[in-house]
Amino acid sequence: MPAAVRELVEARAGGVLGAEVSGEGMNSSLRLVVDTPGGRLFLKGVGPGGRGGWKLDQAAALAPYVGEVSPPLLWRVSAEGWDILAWPALPGRPWADQTPGSPDLPKMLAVLRVVGEMAAPGFVTVTAGDHWARYADDPGVFGGDALVHRDMNPCNFVVGDDRAWLVDWGWAVRGPAWLTAAEFVLSLIEAEWLPGDAERFVEALPAWRAADPRHVDVFARANVAMWDEVLGDYPGWPRDWRAGKAREWAEHRAGLARLRA
Fold first, then answer.
1. What is the pLDDT of residues 213-224, one digit of tens each?
2. Helix/strand/coil for 121
3. Is 16 helix (H, G, I), strand (E, B) or coil?
4. pTM for the structure as a whole
5. Which homologous superfamily is 3-88 in?
6. Which CATH architecture has domain 105-260?
């Protein structure tokens, strides 16, 4: 990072006493927790030519709308091709244990219950259908005006003693309220839940209970089609095990569909 950018960050932070790398990000050049005289901050940014600038824009724009489940955006600085956002560093573990029986799970459900009631602000124009329509046999199921997180991986939850937070809203889209819960179901299956057990667990979420089962079936099949494309383009991709989990869920949904017929 150029000296001028470091100085700008230090000026906004009131001084930097120490820093450590925090987590990993495919679309960010910078992920740091820094100690300042006023407390710890989490910094995320992209450098010149870096990917993900549009994600930072959306995360910054959404910050006032997701304050019930995510920390407030404190400031943003841009200079010499760098764009950096700062949030308070949350008092918790930067990943959630999603395995069956984990004490993190009720805290995650409490967050997702709130998310399921969030409406997408008008500036969120990218829709769930924009991503899933190409893989779905019925793209119409992805319509809706809810705010969908769309990246339900355990590293996007910060878990504290009394609660959890949901972070990284850069991938958020406009879509049906049930879709965040459905993404969470698949994430639980990836954490070694049986599909039926994962679905029963999220029945505590009103948005999931209100979903048309046929729409969930479409989403499950669309995940299989998406992974077929990914693995066709990148054979041997290290996370190919996730394709098997998507297929496991789709087969479970197909069995439920036969029972409904």
1. 999 999 999 999
2. coil
3. coil
4. 0.92
5. Phosphorylase Kinase; domain 1 (3.30.200.20)
6. Alpha-Beta Complex (3.90)
